[in-house]
């Protein structure tokens, strides 16, 4: 796996929510971020602007100035309104291409389909990686049922509740406990963080479960610090009663063939983001996810990872206690209170690998 | 909607199962089939070879001979092994293009991506319709929740059990009862039969529910014999515990926003086709489908359409009685015994339109 040195392009937006891909890569990425391009904060460091990221990379005004920090790749770190590439970004991307930086983009616009940029990259001898574009994937085959590592999948009450972050924090806790654990990325930010993966939501529906399976097989193929992987933590997507995204949720639920599930919920949310559909209760969510898994390969919900970012400390602790009271399961906010207590509580519940149901012929 | 006059290309294969697309179009299509190309049966009629299709179209040896019957389109009526276009078919397709026939194909190979064929079609002033290629579709919006027509979706215990056929037969029965009913096609054969539709399984996973919604909106846009559509019967896909195809099933379950479901099952099957995963029982299937619908917009299973083609008459009747005994629901084989009795039994159960759950703000 290539180790990249990223120059992050986020003009005018690095401090905003629209740069969450950049923030995720800085907080959790395996690749280094050597500098950020944002004229609004030029002269400061990342830590000056966003202390919680604990990163001392400098912020510069232009790609040209960022080149001094010897980056190997330009990360398009924000998602502009409407998905189209703003003209002033194009000049910066062209500059990066001419400096032979790899271009890494999570935009809806596929940069490699832009003939001018593609030709320029070819001429410069560098490449464009559109992380949203999935490779051709086969149908689900059942091979994921045979991996030796235990597979833990984060499932949610909705999209954008913290399933990726919970998965990353659980991997960190497992590694701190000397478990050979690997994060399995299934969405654009996760892919940029880990440097591999497939955006399952962009796969043709018939092959989405096959793509999830392929990620699990890839996850066990390489060692974790010289050891055979013991635990894969798969980043979930969407929510099982999300009117638009539930098919992606189900593709991961069957395709990644989990042995156990962690339910992730934003404690302040009551309806599906963007729709009026009410969120299911903890017990409804657990019953629905376990019933579906139980129809192919059983997996139980072993804990609840709460996102309490919008609550004060007392309300956060009350929400966590309530989740346990309603379900009898360990619950915690793995960002606010760290992942170790929660990991230690759920680890014994992950238990043995489950087997798929099979017809005895 | 164009009315086509089809010349069906099925060389050496018209009588085989691999020509099931052609058989479906002949049995249920709104377009006419004027002749079939299959040198193996040249000189006979469709009825001579497959009496149940009750069709007197002639079978000829070549496309050149078929042109005499004034077709407007060539239907690629079989799926060759491996999906690649056999060289001897290419010459026949070229002949049809030169005769200015529209080329209608359900092959995995996208014919419009074949530069030589595409250029030839353009030069001849005709077009290629690859029915598997979906149009760009938006995200699910909730607009399908607001249509006035009742929406009935066929859901299955597995793929290839008869969901399309059950939907077509129910539309026929409803029309015989003077209900303005329309079949909503979601797979390649259904699309060729109806002359419109989207192959949901080929849509990018994030947009699959949106594609199902768009079909419902299209289904109510045009009148049915001068009347506003009262009933849409949506062709289901896959099965909810199908390890590979369930995401497509769920996209239709949420995206088509049904008011009621008909469960379709092949009475002789015990495991998911191609996998060892056991089929769910009737009660498990009903509980799972109703629980999922109930989390977004409620819909009940109102009847069970059994496919008893592999059973003798006594066994078929016993299977039907057993389905009713296990579930308390009307059950029948709508092909073997006709759709009217079953339609009359379920019609009162379709009842009123259901409303989606909404959060009261």
Description of the structure:
The structure is a homodimer of 361-residue chains. Chain A has 361 residues and is α/β, with parallel strands linked by helices. Helices cover 34% and strands 16% of the residues of chain A. The first copy, chain A, is built from 12 helices and 12 strands. In chain A, the strands form 2 sheets. In chain A, strands 3-2-1-4-5-6 form a 6-stranded parallel β-sheet, with helices on both faces. In chain A, α1 packs parallel to α7, α4 packs parallel to α5 and α8 packs across α9. The model of chain A has no long low-confidence stretch (mean pLDDT 95). Chains A and B meet through α8, α9 and α10 of A and α8, α9 and α10 of B.
């Amino acid at each position: 796996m290539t180790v990249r040195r990223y120059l992050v392009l986020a003009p005018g937006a690095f401090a905003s929510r629209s740069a969450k891909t950049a923030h995720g890569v800085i907080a959790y990425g395996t690749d280094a971020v050597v500098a950020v391009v944002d004229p609004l904060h030029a002269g400061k460091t990342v830590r000056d602007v966003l202390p919680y990221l604990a990163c001392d990379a400098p912020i510069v005004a232009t790609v040209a100035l960022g080149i001094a920090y010897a980056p190997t790749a330009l990360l398009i770190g924000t998602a502009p309104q409407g998905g189209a590439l703003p003209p002033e970004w194009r000049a910066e991307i062209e500059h990066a291409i001419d400096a032979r930086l790899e271009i890494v983009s999570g935009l809806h616009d596929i940069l490699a389909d832009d003939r001018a940029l593609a030709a320029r990259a070819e001429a410069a001898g560098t490449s464009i990686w559109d992380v949203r574009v999935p490779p051709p994937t086969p149908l689900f085959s059942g091979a994921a049922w045979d991996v030796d590592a235990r597979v833990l999948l984060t499932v949610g009450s909705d999209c954008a509740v913290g399933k990726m972050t919970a998965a990353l924090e659980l991997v960190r806790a497992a590694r701190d406990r000397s478990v050979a654990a690997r994060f399995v990325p299934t969405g654009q930010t996760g892919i940029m963080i880990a440097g591999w993966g497939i955006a399952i939501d962009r796969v043709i529906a018939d092959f989405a479960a096959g793509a999830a399976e392929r990620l699990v097989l890839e996850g066990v193929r390489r060692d974790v610090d010289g050891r055979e992987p013991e635990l894969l933590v798969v980043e979930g997507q969407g929510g099982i009663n999300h009117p638009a995204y539930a098919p992606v949720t189900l593709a991961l639920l069957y395709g990644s063939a989990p042995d156990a599930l962690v339910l992730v919920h934003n404690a302040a949310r009551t309806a599906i983001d963007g729709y009026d559909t009410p969120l299911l209760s903890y017990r409804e969510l657990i019953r629905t996810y376990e019933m579906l898994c139980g129809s192919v390969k059983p997996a139980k919900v072993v804990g609840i990872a709460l996102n309490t970012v919008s609550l004060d400390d007392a309300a956060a602790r009350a929400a966590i206690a309530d989740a346990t009271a309603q379900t009898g399961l360990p619950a915690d906010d793995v960002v606010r209170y760290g992942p170790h207590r929660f990991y230690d509580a759920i680890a014994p519940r992950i238990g043995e690998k489950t087997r798929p149901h099979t017809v005895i012929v």
